[in-house]
């Protein structure tokens, strides 16, 4: 139970069980082909796709918009001067309850739709937009393979709604933003591809779009950049098991964000089960399993709720390069804001953006690249443990552990990514320490006995010459030099202070006068 791999394994197994129960495999059979009524429940007034509009942030019943019934637009308070944001849920729900005008109570709705929907409705209503939802529970509450096939049907119905809005009240599709979670992301894609070329949807956001039966498929069979004027996606659960991942791994948007690499998310380890039990009771196991998949939703909600703490993603080829701090550039559109307030420019081609987040909201962290130049004056490579303390104009962060991942040999510069949970302001002082260990203390004492410092001080120890720093969020570059240039050697348990090199040069000039 201790491994985070149990979460994706459990979900993938559930998918297989659901699919095999009705004789459906998870192969790559094209789901644009026709299928029988026994396999998919066709939409109808009683059971199918419904479009709900929410009047305020506390509205959990919704008002149903009916295509070809223009009076429902006025009844539901649709404002043609404001954009329309439609939320599309994924493969979830229960047939035991309904949502909308026929609901008997809010508790029925809570049992039907996951709580994140109401959180998203609430924060969206704080903006000047119409907020709606595509409710397709009766078609989503199916064996997985059937629900996948239904995504195209629902997407076509969404397109029919948008075309009717343009025809009846001159509301342009370019003012529409579809936000789809999991299978709902692909519903959004099918809605976009069902529109004709002259009536393109303004924006589609895919929140961890579903992977099984979509990974590796052609753009026409999943969400793709062609489905809207602007498409962004957040990938949070792409860890593979048996060749499958809950969330799709491949880029499918203009901007594809991969928080924490996209494979898994902090705070979603199975060891967090006890915290989830305290919060969710008997539903704790379900909450733990879907934690990483649903994190995409909460990152998006966070971007609305904490608009002053927007998370930034940086274009990079892979997470390994990003972890070395090599990708913190914003030149030529190489970075963008994750979430609702993303910069909606045309990147030319799809961009993969990476970032680190906290385990809970607000999720933003501050990214720094540290490039550290070492000179090893010991004959053999050394693998010490270091720590850094950072003093800024606002805050100080102490004892950040530093792991280089390889031994220090001869003269080499190492690059690494450091993230901070809080804004320390402009960095002004770095304290760099070689942490003590019993092994290294013994080795160093032996070296001191064999080579007395008075005779060989010039040739022993590590020399730490320069530290280059780049702040990802501000794009500021800084160079730090040793405060005491007369003593450059670093020994075990010793701490060196580094200041900005221009400050150090001023001190040298004053000393020479």
TrEMBL record:
It is found in: Secreted. Keywords: Glycoprotein, HDL, Heparin-binding, Hydrolase, Lipid degradation, Lipid metabolism, Secreted, Signal. It catalyses: 1,2-di-(9Z-octadecenoyl)-sn-glycero-3-phosphocholine + H2O = (9Z-octadecenoyl)-sn-glycero-3-phosphocholine + (9Z)-octadecenoate + H(+); a triacylglycerol + H2O = a diacylglycerol + a fatty acid + H(+); 1,3-di-(9Z-octadecenoyl)-glycerol + H2O = 3-(9Z-octadecenoyl)-sn-glycerol + (9Z)-octadecenoate + H(+); 1,2-di-(9Z-octadecenoyl)-sn-glycerol + H2O = 2-(9Z-octadecenoyl)-glycerol + (9Z)-octadecenoate + H(+). Residues 1-23 form the signal peptide. It is an enzyme of class 3 (hydrolase). Its main location: secreted. This is Hepatic triacylglycerol lipase. It comes from Microtus ochrogaster (Prairie vole).
């Amino acid at each position: 139970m201790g491994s985070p791999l149990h979460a994706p394994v459990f979900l993938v197994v559930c998918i297989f069980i659901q699919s095999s129960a009705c004789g459906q495999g998870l192969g790559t059979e094209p789901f644009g082909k026709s299928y029988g009524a026994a396999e998919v429940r066709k939409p109808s007034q009683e059971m199918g796709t419904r479009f709900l509009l929410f009047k305020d942030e506390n509205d959990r019943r919704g008002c149903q918009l009916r295509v070809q019934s223009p009076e429902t637009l006025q009844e539901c308070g649709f404002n043609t001067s404001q954009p329309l944001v439609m939320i599309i849920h994924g493969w979830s729900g229960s047939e035991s309850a309904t949502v909308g005008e026929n609901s008997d109570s809010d508790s029925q709705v809570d049992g039907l739709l996951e709580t994140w929907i109401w959180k998203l409705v609430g924060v969206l209503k704080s903006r000047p937009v119409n907020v709606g939802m595509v409710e397709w529970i009766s078609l989503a509450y199916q064996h997985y393979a059937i629900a996948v096939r239904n995504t195209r049907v629902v997407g076509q119905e969404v397109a029919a709604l948008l075309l009717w809005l343009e025809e009846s009240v001159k509301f342009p599709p370019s003012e529409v933003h579809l936000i789809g979670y999991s299978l709902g992301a692909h519903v959004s894609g099918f809605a976009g591809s069902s529109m004709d070329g002259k009536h393109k949807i303004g924006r589609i956001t895919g929140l961890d779009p579903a992977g099984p039966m979509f990974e590796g498929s052609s753009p026409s069979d999943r969400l793709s950049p062609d489905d809207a004027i602007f498409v962004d996606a957040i990938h949070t659960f792409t860890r593979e098991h048996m060749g499958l991942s809950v969330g799709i791994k491949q880029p499918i948007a203009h901007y594809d964000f991969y928080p924490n690499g996209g494979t898994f998310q902090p705070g979603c380890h199975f060891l967090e089960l006890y915290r989830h039990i305290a919060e969710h009771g008997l539903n704790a196991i379900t909450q733990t399993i879907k934690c990483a998949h649903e994190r995409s939703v909460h990152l998006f909600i966070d971007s609305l709720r904490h608009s002053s703490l927007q998370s930034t993603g940086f274009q990079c080829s892979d997470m390994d390069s990003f972890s070395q701090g090599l990708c913190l550039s914003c030149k030529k559109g190489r970075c963008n804001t994750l979430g609702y307030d993303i910069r909606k420019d045309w990147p030319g081609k799809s961009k993969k953006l990476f970032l680190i987040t906290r385990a809970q909201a607000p999720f933003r962290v501050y990214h720094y690249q540290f490039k550290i130049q070492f000179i090893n004056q010991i004959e053999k490579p050394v693998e010490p443990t270091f720590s850094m303390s950072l003093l800024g104009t606002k805050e100080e962060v102490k004892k950040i552990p530093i792991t280089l991942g390889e031994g220090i040999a001869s003269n080499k510069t190492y690059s690494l990514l450091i993230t901070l949970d809080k804004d320390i302001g402009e960095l002004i002082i770095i304290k760099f320490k070689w942490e003590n260990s019993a092994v290294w203390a013994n080795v160093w004492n032996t070296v001191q006995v064999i080579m007395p410092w008075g005779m060989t001080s010039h040739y022993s120890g590590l020399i730490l010459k320069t530290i280059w720093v780049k702040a990802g969020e501000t794009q500021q570059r800084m160079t730090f030099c040793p405060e005491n240039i007369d003593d450059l050697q670093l020994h075990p348990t010793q701490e060196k202070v580094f200041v900005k090199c221009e400050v150090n040069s001023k001190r040298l000039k004053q000393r020479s006068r």
